């Protein structure tokens, strides 16, 4: 039996709102959102920017984290997004964020 990775992600929609979701394949899920086959909330709100992604080992942990993020205020979400972006780009050896 193959082990799956579990991800929680945040998309920034074109109307500047955030959508938080769970998946085992971030790129496949992003494509589904872009093609209008994702969550009802995201339909008509694209294009999207992936602004946060967290890999977890267990589905239950990922779903718990998704609920935590969905309950956060916009300001709290933006704080974890900023932290993730800093860490992501520091790992690549650059200090410039896109």
Automatic annotation (TrEMBL):
Keyword set, alphabetical order: Endonuclease, Hydrolase, Nuclease
GO molecular-function terms, A-Z: endonuclease activity
Keyword Nuclease attached: yes
Family: Belongs to the UPF0213 family.
InterPro entries attached to this UniProt entry: GIY-YIG_endonuc (IPR000305), GIY-YIG_endonuc_sf (IPR035901), UPF0213_domain (IPR050190)
GIY-YIG domain residues: 4-79
Pfam family for this entry, one: GIY-YIG
Protein name in the entry: Putative endonuclease
PROSITE patterns: GIY_YIG
